[in-house]
Known about the structure:
Elements: H1 2-13, H2 18-24, H3 27-42, H4 49-77, H5 81-105, H6 112-140, E1 143-144, H7 147-170, H8 181-205, H9 234-268, H10 275-284, H11 286-297, H12 301-317, H13 319-326, H14 340-357, E2 361-362, H15 364-382
Antiparallel strand pairs: 1-2
Amino acid sequence: MAAKTTRTESNRTDPSGSALRTNLLSWTALAPLVAIVALVLTWGRHLGTLPVIIVAVALAAAVLAAVHHAEVVAHRVGEPFGSLVLAVAVTIIEVALIVTLMISGGKDTASLARDTVFAAVMITCNGIVGLSLFVGAVRFRLISFNAEGTGAALATVTTLAVMTMVVPTFTTSAPGPEFSSSQLAFAAVVSLALYGMFVSTQTRRHRDFFLPVAQDGQPLDDEDGDEHADPPTNRETYLSLGLLLLSLVAVVGLAKVESPAIESGVAAAGFPQSFVGVVIALLVLLPETLAAARAARGNRIQTSLNLALGSAMASIGLTIPAIAIASIWLDGPLLLGLGPVQMVLLALTVVVSVLTVVPGRATRLQGGVHLVLLAAFVFLAVNP
């Protein structure tokens, strides 16, 4: 501990900026730069097997780098603001991927937005939540979180999901599971309004509802959940913010480069075309999953839940309005309504999530139930 304190003090008092130079030479700084170079060299070109593998490695490195830099920024700003940083960043990636694939895919991608957003909801509410609860409970047996804040987030996610993905199945103004233009505009405005109200509640009026709690349910004084680590300096924070943005650009671009390989792989495996949306959601939510699991290992379950439900909320509340605007220039219909099996899985997820959240405490059983629901979703996505 003394060695760590001495190293931190020397970094702060070193006028030559040697600590900053060390950060610039780390893999987390080099990975986004290498990914950008790979993007420039491969953009718009037909790739063979080896280049596709290289691009995939660069893409994975950029994702991991994005996780690191988002956590640095999150550590500086503290909870719950830190959770918003990664949630919004991931949503930017998701929107960019959906729009670019819909532009290149034409009418065959009419349901891509729905498939991706629904997959994001299932992955966050079952995968990330389940993994966080399971990891935390295995290590600490019984884990605690703030039921008030988590319940409010879950209610917002449920309302957004039903309004944008269940209601279109039953409306009659347009043929098929889609909104009319006015209905789509209303859904977009409602989504933005709900997301804005939640962010205001989370960051201003009831911020304590979303802070990590101790075993007795009381908010922790240490908001970032790591009392042993000093927050990064302003220079380190700005550097990480810049590298985070660079990583996001690289991830979006390289994912677009990889998209033909993804679509070909899905088709070669005999999976439905809708499974492309699942692959996109798994890719863009990897940073959230890693960050949430790491927080759970540190007994910061509330941070994990903030990340999971915040990502689900952003995936709907920001993606649907963006897609609604993009649909002005996109050809073909925009199918948003879920099918019967998907609605059953969504309803079951909501019921189980409510039962998980209400007590404010959980064991590995609750985590296991959510993970089984995720497995059911993936299996039925492959075998509808």
